[in-house]
Design brief:
26% of the residues are buried. The strands form 3 sheets. Strands 6-5-7-8-9 form a 5-stranded parallel sheet, sandwiched between helices. The chain has 183 residues and is of the alpha/beta class. α5 links the parallel β8 (134-138) and β9. α3 packs parallel to α4. 34% of the residues lie in helices and 23% in strands. It has helices at 26-31, 62-74, 86-96, 113-126, 143-152, 164-172, and strands at 4-10, 14-20, 35-36, 39-40, 54-58, 79-83, 101-105, 134-138, 156-159. The chain is built from 6 helices and 9 strands, in the order ββαβββαβαβαβαβα.
Amino acid sequence: MQGMVEVSSELGVGTTFTVTLPVQSEKAREEAPAIVEGHDRSQAKPGEILKDKRILSVDDHPTNLMMMRRLLVKMGAAEVVEVEDGADAMDAFCHQGPFDLVIMDFHMPGMDGLQATRAIRAYEEEQNHQHTPILIVTADAMKETFEKCLEAGVDDYITKPISRQQLIQTIGKYVIIPENERG
């Protein structure tokens, strides 16, 4: 969560734990400029970041799908196709595509996020299909997990709990807003 934990202890006196987490008001998050890897998105209105984009959202938990849909719609997504496992993600990708972006949970029963990513990448190669950015969502922030994601063909990684600003910044690396659509 990009915070810090501090511990101070004195024998016979006690121990103090201090947890510091970055928190912004909703208004500050909406107004914060999002400058991501050379793309100046500061002029983009929050509701135009995903304007006219089709997103495939994959998660085995209905509440997570609902929350992701809300975030994506607020960012202007034209359509969010939701499925609940990796096998359905592959089916949707092949039969309901093309998609501008895939956001997929890491841990799912059956075909997990990495297996689904490998299958999508194989399909793209086989069909000579344009590369579709795939973002994995997980609570596991370990370096080894991120390396496994990259090896599977994932483009980027979003840690839970997901903040709107984190989602905007990560998506901003892969979705570019045309100049004439900036605010």
